[in-house]
Design a protein that fits this description.
The protein is an alpha/beta fold. The chain is built from eleven helices and 30 strands. The strands form seven sheets. It has a six-stranded antiparallel β-sheet with strand order 20-21-22-29-24-27, with no helix packed on it. The protein has a five-stranded mixed β-barrel with strand order 6-9-7-8-12. Strands 14-16-18-19 form a four-stranded mixed β-sheet.
Length: about 475
């Protein structure tokens, strides 16, 4: 069994915490230590005959995904980079073709979104065993979440006849779109409907056979994308031109609704897709007043609220049923009943060209991160953190000079023909146009303050002359 972890989403309904370049699956939303991507891998510990995962993500997230996998120490069998979003069916096809190319065509693919919560791990493992037996017989298995309330935000799966040899699995009768409230209530009472979890288990060869039958153009495009892929460090870059030719479609529409081999296994394991702030509140510890809080929060006469403070004190007085989320550069205040519409705000911000849609004030890079501390006319101040043994690209700027002050650790600095070793409380000046590089030769994180001055301070004023991370020289 090989996990196929889909990590391509942007999680816009959890803005301002989730951003396009740092989405919810990479955040520790329901854990103090681990991101949702890491928890997706951790909950598989103890599953028999489990191999390292294949991860599918987009190019912008690649270094963060690789670093989080490295932190867990579980390894992987490839990180596939989607050059463009084409929904779940092509993403899973690319993973299946990658396994075929590496000699694992008959392996069972456990397809898991990277941004779900499952609290009852033993129940999840038990459902995997039931599904595994069916997948080994050629079924395309989907996991249907046993509903505990009438939910209008999910699609549903209607079960059919029970499998004779395994009464805990059922033929799929139909897939149903998101219902209205009355229909959802009827589904709940019937006992024949499950929430569509978006998790699957099947052999790579069986999925590709059904895809060839129902979506031959998609399969052809994905084959070309894999055949034309390039290996880059930890990553496998799918051929962009070929992958763009694939139809944009979900696995439900492309295969599962059409195949006669679909089987549903009920899953009652505390599942939640954390698709909104109200959903995150549901899976968070709550006070006697129904409040869920994270960070430095002080509540007075407050009930049924979710309050998240990331960088400063947040206080409330006399409010009910609100979502309040504070980050270093944005604050959201929303009625709990309208949190599904946060995407509307994100769309407006995106149309206005606001950076708050794309990234946080702290921006992650393969070598570490930087935080924009202050900015004014013709100057900018950043705090840089460089991981031990890491280095920035050899580069130059045409519109700014820089001044680096070391706060912690030791910096190895290249400045034109000079090689400098800068320790704590020491600094170095980099005049406009000079060729320079920064690296951390030590065993602890290097922290320094960078002061930029000049007429233009955009991130695109970087010309990379040498880059250990193989990024576009002008990106």
């Amino acid at each position: 069994m090989i996990p196929i972890i889909l990590s391509g989403g942007s999680g816009t309904r959890l803005w301002p915490l989730s951003r396009k370049h740092y989405p919810k699956q990479l955040l520790p939303l329901v854990s103090d230590e681990h991101s949702m991507l890491q928890q997706t891998q951790q909950r598989l510990l103890g599953v028999p005959e489990l191999q390292p995962p294949v991860i599918v993500c987009n190019d912008n997230h690649r270094f963060m995904v690789a670093e989080q996998v490295r932190q867990l120490g579980c390894g992987h069998q490839g990180i596939l980079l989607e050059p463009i979003g084409r929904n779940t069916a092509p993403a899973i096809a690319a993973a299946a073709l990658h396994l075929t190319q590496t000699g694992s065509a008959d392996a069972l693919m456990l397809v898991l979104p990277a941004d779900h919560v499952i609290t009852d791990i033993p129940a999840f493992h038990a459902a995997l065993e039931v599904a595994k037996a069916q997948a080994q017989q050629g079924a395309l298995v989907t996991f249907g979440v046993v509903p505990h309330q009438p939910e209008t935000g999910y699609g549903y799966i209607q079960r059919g006849q029970a499998i004779e040899a395994e009464p805990s699995a059922y033929r799929v009768r139909s897939f149903v779109e998101k219902p209205d409230s009355a229909t959802a209530q009827a589904y709940l009472h019937s006992g024949d409907y499950y929430w569509n979890s978006g998790m699957f288990l099947f052999a790579a060869s069986d999925y590709l056979a059904e895809l060839e039958r129902f979506e031959p153009d998609m399969l052809a495009a994905c084959k070309s994308a894999i055949e034309g892929s390039l290996h880059d460090l930890d990553f496998i870059r799918l051929n962009a031109e070929a992958f763009a030719r694939s139809p944009d479609n979900s696995i439900d529409y492309a295969v599962m609704e059409k195949t006669a081999r679909a089987v549903v296994v009920p899953l009652d394991a505390g599942w939640n897709d954390v698709g909104s702030w109200s959903a995150l509140k549901d899976v968070s510890p709550q006070t006697a007043e129904g409040n869920a809080v994270v960070g430095d929060v002080l509540l007075e006469n407050t009930r049924d609220c979710f309050v998240y403070a990331s960088s400063r004190l947040v206080t409330t007085l006399g409010v009910n049923k609100l979502v309040i989320v504070e980050t270093a550069d944005a604050v959201l205040v929303a009625d709990m009943e309208q949190v599904q519409d946060v995407k509307t705000l994100v769309d407006r911000l995106s149309s206005a060209g606001r950076d708050e849609v794309l990234q946080h004030r702290e921006v992650y890079r393969p070598w570490g991160s930087f935080d924009g501390v202050d900015r004014g006319e013709r100057y900018q101040v950043k705090r840089l953190t460089v991981k031990p043994g890491s280095e920035l690209s050899l580069q130059r700027h045409f519109h700014r000079s820089e001044h680096w002050i070391v706060v912690q650790g030791t910096a190895q600095v290249t400045r034109d023909q000079e090689q400098l070793l800068i320790s704590e409380n020491e600094s170095v000046y980099l005049p406009l146009g000079c060729v320079h590089k920064l690296s951390n030769p030590g065993k602890i994180p290097l922290q320094l303050i960078e002061v930029q001055t000049g007429g233009y301070l955009g991130e695109d004023d970087i010309v990379r002359l040498e880059d250990p991370y193989h990024r576009d020289p002008s990106s």
